[in-house]
Design a protein that fits this description.
Layout (H helix, E strand, L loop, with lengths): L6 H20 L6 H13 L3 E4 L6 H11 E2 L2 E5 L6 H5 E7 L5 E7 L6 E5 L6 H4 L3 H6 L1 E4 L2 E4 L5 E6 L12 H4 L4 E4 L5 H11 L11 E2 H12 L5 H12 L10 H6 E3 L3 H17 L7 H12 L4 E2 L1 H5 L4 H11 L14
Parallel strand pairs: 1-9, 1-10, 2-11, 3-6, 6-9
Antiparallel strand pairs: 4-5, 7-8, 12-13
Helix pairs in contact: 2-12, 10-12, 10-13, 12-13, 13-15
């Protein structure tokens, strides 16, 4: 990307790069277009993605394919109940020199990569899950009082199985909140299944090629933050988040009835950043109300905590959020006032 290029030129270059990246991923991944868009959105805003779905739907394959089309260091961590934090972040070991002198040295773990696949993350204990918190938020790891910076760009792509609950440990709210999107992977269609079988049972293994580097990703991340968000559109995103707070100013009847804890400001940040990506892909340089609506569900479904009544009635978070989307108006009756003093 030329540093002197105009905003329209840079936006067009971004769309071409995005299209080329998605085409390479599509050589291996059949269908799941919305899921691929969600993962790529996380990539271009510097966020982490949580993919949820039953086994065999291609969640792990998607992340591995993404690592093949990006010139980034990749590592995979298979989460199990006996996995320890040191197995992820590394540990300090004692080494002996040829002169017999003993020194302490840090042996880095698989977290020291740029794309980290946390496979079946909910199979590890909360103690082990917590080893990811600092890395995901601060892009660093602290061991023995020493801070080790992670190489940018850095992404955690985690998968989990929502059906099998035996031997699993649900992610705590603090962990979930650090994921930019939660993407629900559904079953393939009849046509997609046919294509999958054609590719996998006839000794035809398409190989994607690397089309993007880390510095390029960082440049696109800077471009996305330059997209304009008008005050009414930003206020719409804010009110959609505030509408998840029980007994709050914008809380709906379903919010007060089913939600125990609403979303944090990270939810609003995720909505606005993801909406900027959508706007650029649509050929616009400013975010619209429709962009906000399109990214609301994956950005928010894991950030609200339902109460016992919702669980007893088997009410999913998506149903509550859909009600909020239908109820909150695009333009507020009373405009927002910001005290800049």
């Amino acid at each position: 990307m030329k540093p002197t290029a105009s905003m329209p030129e840079r936006a067009e270059q971004f769309r071409q790069a995005y299209r080329r990246l998605k085409e390479e991923v599509g050589k291996v991944i059949v269908g799941h277009s919305e899921i691929v868009d969600g993962v790529l959105t996380c990539l271009f805003v510097g966020g982490h993605a949580l993919l949820e779905g039953v086994p065999g739907l291609g969640k792990t394959l998607l992340v591995r394919t993404l690592s093949q089309v990006l010139d980034l260091k990749f590592s995979r961590i298979q989460f199990t109940p006996d996995l320890m934090p040191a197995d992820i972040i590394g540990t300090t070991i004692i080494s002996e020199s040829s002169e017999g002198k003993r020194t302490f040295s840090f042996q880095s773990g698989p977290i020291f990569a740029q794309i980290v696949l946390a496979d079946e993350i909910n199979r590890a204990t909360p103690k082990t899950q917590s080893a990811l918190l600092e890395a995901m938020q601060e892009r660093q790891v602290t061991v023995g009082g020493t801070v080790h910076k992670l190489q940018e760009p850095f992404f955690v792509m985690a998968t989990q199985n929502p059906i099998e609950q035996e031997g699993t440990y649900p992610l705590p709210e603090a962990q979930l909140d650090r994921f930019f999107f939660k993407l629900v992977v559904n079953y393939s269609t009849r046509e997609e299944m046919s294509t999958i079988l054609d590719r996998t049972t006839r000794n035809e293994w398409p190989q994607p090629t690397k089309v993007m580097t880390g510095p390029e990703i960082e440049e696109w991340q800077k471009l996305i933050r330059e997209v304009i968000v008008a005050a009414p559109v930003q206020d719409y995103a804010i009110r959609l988040v505030l509408a998840t707070h029980p007994q709050g100013e914008f809380a709906s009847a379903d919010t007060n009835r089913y939600i125990r804890c609403g979303a944090s400001p990270r939810g609003a940040q995720a909505i606005v950043l993801a909406a900027k990506v959508r706007a650029l892909l649509e050929g616009r340089y400013n975010v619209g109300f429709e962009d906000i609506r399109r990214v609301y569900m994956p950005a928010m479904r894991h950030r609200i905590l339902l109460n016992f009544e919702a669980q007893a009635e088997n009410i999913p978070s998506d149903q509550v959020l859909a009600g909020i989307l239908n109820e909150i108006k695009e333009k507020a009756d009373v405009p927002i006032t910001v005290n800049k003093s």
